[in-house]
Amino acid sequence: MSTSSIQKRDDISIVLCGEAGQGIQTVEQILTRVLKLSGFNIIGTKEYMSRVRGGSNSTQIRVSSRNVSSAVDRIDILIPLDKKALQHVGKRISPDTVILGEKDEIVGENDNGDLTVIDVPFSQIASDIGGRVYSNTVATGVIAGLFKVDRADFLNYVTTFFSGEKETIIEKNREAAKKGYEIAQELIDSGAVDIDVKKDPGSARDILINGAEAVGIGAIAGGCNFISSYPMSPSTAVLVFLSRHAEEFDIVAEQAEDEISAINMALGAWYAGARAMVTTSGGGFALMEEAVGLAGMLESPVVIHLAQRPGPATGLPTRTEQGDLQLALYSGHGEFPRIIFAPGKLEDAVFLSSMAFNLADKCQIPVFILTDQYFMDSYYNMPSLPLSDTGIVKYVVKTDKRYKRYALTKNGISPRGVPGFGSGLVSVDSDEHDEEGHITEDLDLRVKMVDKRLAKLKEIEKDALPPELVGRGDYTTLIVGWGSTYHTIKEALGCLKRDDVSFLHFKQVFPLHRTTLSYLKKAKKVVAIEGNATAQFSHLINRQTGFNIQDKILKYSGLQFSVEEVVAQLEKLL
What we know:
This protein is α/β, with parallel strands linked by helices. About 40% of the residues lie in helices and about 20% in strands.
């Protein structure tokens, strides 16, 4: 066992690891906020097992002098809260990793002689205060102290965080936080730790949100006033967020008895004039597919937030994957159009979620917002939200007695009325129907109605968002990515330091923007990076443009891409 100091860096990766129930989330919530308020740039993300107690979970908090928004494998400071922690994150531990923990209890037989360990008796300190449950707060104090967070501000935040608890619990947590802070001061004074991450004055005023909150904020900005869903990780946080703000923004939030009821409630809400969404994950959405077909026939707007996780079946319910693109693309029997967004930045999630409601209303189609567990649970600071780019545009018309819900039009979009707004009859039906919405088996009219619905594709393509090019326009190699891989690939590209390599990111994956093929044909080499096993987006590109991407970097372990592994894989290919 060796000992050495943590040298000064402008970017520190902290990982806390323990079992569910040890309060890792508490540490994460307190630290990210006090560090941000102290003037540091941060990104936080987590990986966790599907269990209420036990297992091994970890949280990474990356603290930097510059803006950071991606996960790394590197661990500079590791705080293991149980014996299984070192084994769980063992592949990420390097000779430069400093472990703050209990040598005998936590490290023990895991030490092969090359671990750098600083003995911190978290459990003993916590027990002296009132119980091992306070170990996590002691750890919070240590990290806050190492980064020289203002002591008074830190303790005030701890008090605020636990303000809903009994006074004795608040005081014990304050005491635990103080003890941890004192330990950090001792480590600094002894020279064991020397962290000097420069502060960014602007970050203290920044907004700190995660992906779920970004989707929820965008939905509110888009006029969402009805959400019906059945809880399913990792999508539930959007339902929770909108429920929490339901009274403030006049939102009806309904936890349905199952996913089938949830999406049918949403369709009914749109029919009545509301702007509705559902939030779900792969297995839950599989139950909603029949109603997606119903939306296609009714020509009903609906916004579907699909937070991806590994399947099939229950799969890995708390892990991440980009495996449901084809599910969204081909969901619902029959042929009818849809739009699929896949935000890569939190700012994108706000803008796209807002835009989804306007486009669903305008084109009377399902609009999907594809995220994943990594995107949903990750958060970082940003100066502002793009709310000035959002706005509510409604397309409902006042009906008269001559109103025809499915009037044949050149662009396929019929005037949409709602019951009670005007004197017309708003008749809809899941069977094929005539212009007034009455059931028909007139086969010539059937052809006209199918053509009408598909004609919307041209209108949708007009509004398609172009991909974002990161890097120079005179590239020879083009990296293609979509959704949550944005920040990781962008940072990896910076690490490569090659002017001939650029990155094309898609936040709208269907339909593709008309410029897509020109970007691809310009490159001598194209590399697709996707979080799935079958390169689903690459196949979609091939289907839409005829371009075949031969080189692919795929990951489907249940964990997100890290900057280091993207760099390593690209260096092999390039």
